[in-house]
Amino acid sequence: MHKKIKVGIDALPAVPGMSGAVGAIRNMIKIVPKVDNSVELIIFVNSAQYDYYKRFLPLDAPNKITLFIVKFPSSPLPLRLWAQNFIVPSLCHKFDIDVHFSMNPEPIIKISGVKEVFKVVDLQYFDVPQEFGVWKTTYRKWMGRRKAKRAELILGNSLYTKAKIMEYLGVQPDRIRVVHEALDHEFFNTDHLDLKDLDVFRKRYSIAYPFIIYVSSFRPYKNHALLLQAFSKLREKGLPYHLVLIGNDIKGYRRKIENKAIEVGLTHCIHFFDYIHHWDLRLFYAAADLAVYPSELETFGIPPLEAMACGVPVIVSDRTAVPEISGGGSLVVDPHNISLMAESMYQVLSNEKLGKELQEKGKTWCKQFTEERNISETIQLIRDLVN
């Protein structure tokens, strides 16, 4: 019989459609009661987040998960930071929390009598500080180092992330544990998908063309501009494919990519979509002939695995954590080698045997990234910490 443990999760920064942390919290809500019913989760959310996370509460474990509304909005930022630094710690005492779990460096001071688990999934403030401004970058760097110094357990989502935690946050390797992120196989699969579903999908989004897909927010280091150059070369080879780009626009960078599409004369075959919910995103993958992921900077990178699970051949970047996470199920190329990227896309799209080999390779590879494995490993580490 396991000792009962209360874990408080700060979900305030995890805004659906804007943060990759949403998937991790969603997985904990769905899976923790299945793998360890002696663990109780108290998840701190705002009123806007509540309705989203509520839909994932397991009906057979109503008393194991509490969504507690913190009456501060996720924005403006100063109000959210106030809630994370002062309101959430007081709530941890109110609920008699054993462990505070967060993917952000708040709170500013240690919560007395509560152990801290710091899951590091984002180190952009060190890698691309110019994107965040001096104040925000300075704050996050200082807070990150402060949190890493005092946290009893630090989690990284890849070996690459572990190395960067050591380098940027000054943490010794024996204090860091690597737990890979989970792919939501319930959403991302084609087991019950038929041609009628795809026909409805194509009509809804006015898609009547074969296409290559890239799912990623619009940021300079995501290499959309390099992809457009490679795509232009691919079109010169005579293949009539279109390019579908799906992702949130960050600080207006999408406009630059739209202008780049005009520059290369391909606006008629490059299509932009904003955030697409999981239910429709899997249909985009299933309808695509190829998924690409030329990103320069990732601590993990889940979209290639989503594409693999939906039976799409995948080409990924050889940078940062991407080859570690997705290289075993995809074709790995240098995103800066435009000719090689174009030729790789051409070979996958024109060589049926190669395409099918990548499909099967990807389907097999992505199976290891399960929610059960991710949550079981995380909860065991938390339990070891408490014990």
Write the layout of secondary structure elements.
Blueprint: E1 5-10, H1 21-35, E2 39-45, H2 47-54, E3 65-69, H3 77-94, E4 99-102, E5 115-120, H4 124-127, H5 134-150, E6 153-156, H6 159-169, E7 176-178, H7 195-204, E8 211-215, H8 224-236, E9 242-246, H9 253-263, E10 270-273, H10 278-287, E11 290-293, H11 303-309, E12 314-317, H12 322-326, E13 331-333, H13 338-350, H14 352-366, H15 371-386
Parallel strand pairs: 1-2, 1-4, 2-3, 4-5, 5-6, 6-7, 8-9, 8-11, 9-10, 11-12, 12-13
Distance between the termini: 13 Å
Number of strands: 13
- CATH topology category name of the largest domain: Rossmann fold
- Total of DSSP H or I helical runs spanning 4+ residues: 15
Architecture (CATH level 2) name of the largest domain: 3-Layer(aba) Sandwich
Helix/strand order: EHEHEHEEHHEHEHEHEHEHEHEHEHHH
**Percentage of β-strand residues:** 15-25%
The helix/strand class is alpha/beta
- Rg calc: 21 Å
What is the typical, i.e. mean, pLDDT?
93
Main β-sheet: number of strands, strand sense, barrel status? 7 strands, parallel
How many structural domains in the coordinates?
2
Unreliable stretches: none
Folded structure, characterized:
The protein is of the alpha/beta class. The protein folds into 2 domains: about 5-180 and about 370-385, Rossmann fold, CATH 3.40.50; about 195-365, Rossmann fold (3-Layer(aba) Sandwich), CATH 3.40.50. About 45% of the residues lie in helices and about 15% in strands. It contains 15 helices and 13 strands. It has helices at about 20-35, 45-55, 75-95, 125, 135-150, 160-170, 195-205, 225-235, 255-265, 280-285, 305-310, 320-325, 340-350, 350-365, 370-385; strands at about 5-10, 40-45, 65-70, 100, 115-120, 155, 175-180, 210-215, 240-245, 270-275, 290-295, 315, 330-335. The strands form 2 sheets. Strands 3-2-1-4-5-6-7 form a 7-stranded parallel β-sheet, with helices on both faces. Helix 1 crosses helix 15, helix 8 (about 225-235) packs across helix 13 (about 340-350) and helix 11 (about 305-310) crosses helix 14. The radius of gyration is 21 Å and the shape is globular. The two termini are about 15 Å apart. The mean pLDDT is about 95.
